[in-house]
Specification:
six-stranded mixed β-sheet, 2 domains
Length: 369
Amino acid sequence: MRFFLKVIMFFLVALSIWVSLNCYFLWRLFSLPLFGAKTTKIVITSFVIFFALSYIVGRIFIHRGFRGFASFLEVVGAVWIGALFILVVYLFFADVISLFGYFKTASIYLRYLSLLISAVLVFLSLYLGLRTPLIRNETIKVSNPQLSGLKIVQISDLHLGEIKGERFLKKVVKQINEQNPDVVVITGDIIDSDGKNEEKIKSIFREIKAKKGVYGVLGNHEYYFGADKNLSFFEESGIKILRNENIEIKEGLLIAGIDDLSFKRESQQKEDFLEKALENRKSGYTVLLSHSPLEVEKAAEMGVNLMLSGHCHNGQIWPFKFLSKIFYPYNYGRFKVKEMDLIVTSGSGTWGPPMRLFNAGEIVVINLL
C-alpha cells in the first residue's frame, strides 16, 4: 500500500513539473514580439497541448492493444519531452543572464538566441540518440592466466518498444557478433513491455553468438511491466536471467546477478539481494551484474572483482547528468573501488526521448588480460 501511494505521489509530482515546464515555455515564448499575435498564440498553444498529451495518450492506447496512430503519438510525445527540456534549460539561462527581464532589450535578444541554439541542439540530440551505439573498449588485468584473452560484451538499457525496436536491435546484435564475444551480459531495462507478443524481438536475440552464453539481470523497467511475466520472454530469447544468484560459466569465472537495487530501494524491500547472490559461490573471478550502480562499496567488500551496471544513461540529455549524479555518484565511467573494478555504461538505447545530448549510446567490450 505504501509503495502504491509513493507511485501516486510520484505521478502527481511529475505531472505538476510537466505542466509547469510547458507553461514556462509558452510564457517566455509569448513575451517575444514575433509570437505576440493572438492567432499565433492560439495556434502554438494548441500544438503544445497536443505535444504535451501525446506521450501519455499514446502509451495508454498501446497498453490496451492499439498501435498504429498510438505509436505515432508516443514518438511525437517522446521527442517533445526532450525538446522541451532543452528549450526550457536555454530559455532559463537567458533569463538568468538578463536578470529575468531586468535588462529588457538584452532579454529579448537572448531569448531569440536561446531558441535558435535549442533548435540546433534538438536536431543534434536526435541524431546522437538515433545513431548506432559506439563501441567502448575496456581492458582489465586478471591474475588467472586461464582467463586471459576472454572477451565480455556488455549491453544495457535497450528499452525496446515502439521507438526502438527490431531494426535497432538487429544493428546491436550485428555489432555484438562482430566482436566475437565469449560472454554477453545485459544489465537490465531490456524491453519496455511484458514481452508477451514480441516474437521477432526474441528471434533477433537468439542470433547473438557468445561461446559461454548470454546472461542478464532485471532492471527497474522490467518490474514496471511485470518481472514475472518478462521471465518467459527472456528464456525464449536465449537470455539466462540471474536473480540474486551466481553461476560458474568457466573454471575460475563466475557471473553473479541481482535484481534491481533502485526498485528495491523504492519498494523498501528488506531482502539482501547482494548477499544472496554471492553466497555459496565457488572461488574465482567474480563478475557482478547490477542494473543500478548502488551498494558498490559493499560489493567490493564482499570480494566482487568486476561490477557492471547501467541505468543512469549518463544523463542522456545534458545537463541532466548533474542531477543524476546526486542520486548515483557512480553515474558513468570506469572506477576503482577498493580492489574492485566498476564499469557503468551510458546504455545502448534511450528511454523516453530518442535523443542524447553530449553523450553517446554504447556497447562495452571488456577484454580480460
